[in-house]
Amino acid sequence: MSADRSSAPPDTGYDNRKRWQALGVGLVAAFMTLLDVSIVNVAVPSMDRALHATPSDLQWVLSGYALTFGLVLVPAGRFGDARGRRNAFVLGVALFTVTSALAGIARSPEWLVVARLLQGAAAGIVNPQVSGLIQQLFRGAERGRAFGLLGATIGISTAVGPLLGGLLIQLGGEEHGWRWVFFVNVPVGIVAVLLAWRLLPTRPTGQQDRHRLDPVGVLLLGVGVTLVLLPLVQREQWQTPWKWALIPAGLAVLVAFGLWERWYARHRPPLFDLRLLGLRSYLLGALIALVYFGGFTAIFFIFTLYLQNGLGYSALVAGLAITPFALGSAAASALGGRVVNRYGRPLVAIGLLVVVVGLAATVWILRDSPTHSVPLLTAGPLLLAGLGSGLVIAPNQTLTLSEVPVPPAGSGAGMLQTGQRIGSAAGIAAVGSLFFSSLSGSRGDWATAFRHALLLATGIIVLALVAAVVDISLGRRRRA
Q: Which pTM value belongs to this model?
C-alpha cells in the first residue's frame, strides 16, 4: 500500500517526537493566554476591595485585555510568518510573563489597567504563532489531531477560567487572592520560554522574509479594529448613543485597509493576503467562528452573573457550575480533531445543532425560576452543549485553515482569531445588554433575565449553524 503523501510529515528537519513536544509548548502558552480572558471575571470583587477601583477601572481591566489582544493578532502573525515563529513566540510569552507579574503586584487601579493592556498585547503575539506552527509542522490527519488539541485548549481555557479563578481566590483569600490569578502565569511562562527556545523552529519556510511588515496596513487595521471594539467593550461606561457611530467608522477604515492591502500586494508581501478570502473554506469558516464566538463566550458572562449576583453562590461554585461544559468540550474536541478530515463541515453543523439543543434544554429547565440547586439542574444540558462545542471549535479551525498555504499561515490564523475576538465582544455586548434590560424590566428577576439572554445567545449560534449549512450546500453543488 502506498503512503498517503498528504498525511506524511512535512520536511521540517523535525522528528515526530520533537514536533509534538513543540506543539505541547504552544498549547500550554495558548491555554495560559486564553485563560486570562475569563479567569479575571470572578476576581473583580476582590480587586475592587483591594484597590478601591472605580467601575470604569474594572471595565478596563476586563475589556482592555480583549481589546489589545485583538489589535495585535494579525501583525504578530505576519511577523511570525516573515521573521520566524520562535522569535515571535518567545517574545510574546516573555512579555506575557513579565506583565502578569506586574499585574499581580499592582498597587493602584491605573497600574493594573496598564499591565492588563500590555498583557493582552502579549497574548495577541503568542496565539497566531501556535496556529502557524501547526500549519508548518503537520499535514493531513495529523494536522486535524493537532487542531483538535488546540480546539480543546480554547474550549477548556474559556470555560474553566471561572473555576480556576475561584479556587485561587479561595486559597489566597478574599482580599488578595486575585493576585494569584496573575502570579500563577509566572512559573509557567518561564518554563515555556526555555522550552520554546529549544524546541520551536526558527523560520517558517526557507529564508527569512526581509520585506517591510506593511506599516500602513498595520495602522489601518489597528485603527479599524479599535473603532469597532471600543464601543463594544465600553458599552456600560459610555452612556452616549454616539458611541455606536464608531462602529461604521471602523468598518469604513477596514474597507480602506482591504483596498490598501490589494494595492500593496502588487509590490510586496501584504500584512494580510486578501486571496485567502477567495477560499470558500476560509471565508465561511471565519464567518462561522465570528458568529459562534459571539454566542459561545457570552454564555459564561451571564451565567456567572446569574449564579453569583442573582443567587448568591460563591465564585468557586459558579466556576464548578460551568465545569460540565468544559469537560464535554475537551472530550469532543479530541474526537472532532481525529474525524474532521473524514466528515468535513457536516461535523461542525452537527456540533452547532447539539449546542443549540443543550442551551434550549437549559432554558426549559429554568422555566420555573428555581432558586436552589441550579448548578446541578444545568449540569446535564451544559455537558451536552459542551460536547457540541467540542465538535465546532477545533474542526472548524482545521477546515478554515486547511487550504491556507504555510507562508501566510500566521497572518491567516491571526485574522481568524481577530474575528473571534470581535465576535466575543459584540456577543457579550448584545447578550449583556438584553440581560440587564430584562433584569430591570422584570424587577430583579434574575432567572427571567438569564433565560431571555440565553435565548439570544442561542439564536446567535443558530446563525452560525445557518452559515455551516450554506457551506455544506455550496460544497455539494460544486461537486455536482
A: 0.80
State whether 219 and 351 are in the same domain. no
State the chain's maximal CA–CA distance in angstroms: 70
Q: How far is CA 17 from CA 22, 209, 338, in A?
A: 9, 28, 19
Q: Examine residue 60 and state whether it is found in any structural domain, yes or no.
A: yes
Query: Is pLDDT at 207 greater than 60 in this prediction?
Result: no
Radius of gyration of the chain (CA): 21
176-181: average pLDDT = 84
Give pLDDT, residue 185: 92
* Euclidean distance between CA atoms 76 and 39, whole angstroms: 24
Show the CA angle centred on residue 183, arms to residues 181 and 187, nearest 5°.
Answer: 125
Taking only the tens place, the pLDDT of each residue in 245-262 is: 888 998 999 899 889 888
**Same domain assignment for residues 232 and 277:** no
Give me the pLDDT at residue 218, please: 83
CATH of the domain at 315: 1.20.1250.20
Q: Which three cell numbers stand for residue 100?
A: 502578569
Contact assessment for residue 419 and residue 286, using Cβ atoms and an 8 Å cutoff: yes
Closest among 382, 380, 364 to 451, alpha carbons compared: 364
Does the CA dihedral 470-295-78-23 come out positive or negative?
A: negative
- What is the dihedral sign for C-alpha 68, 71, 72, 73? positive
Per-residue 3-state assignment (H helix, E strand, C coil) for 250-261: HHHHHHHHHHHH
Instruction: Report the alpha-carbon distance of residue 176 to residue 46 in Å, rounded.
Output: 7
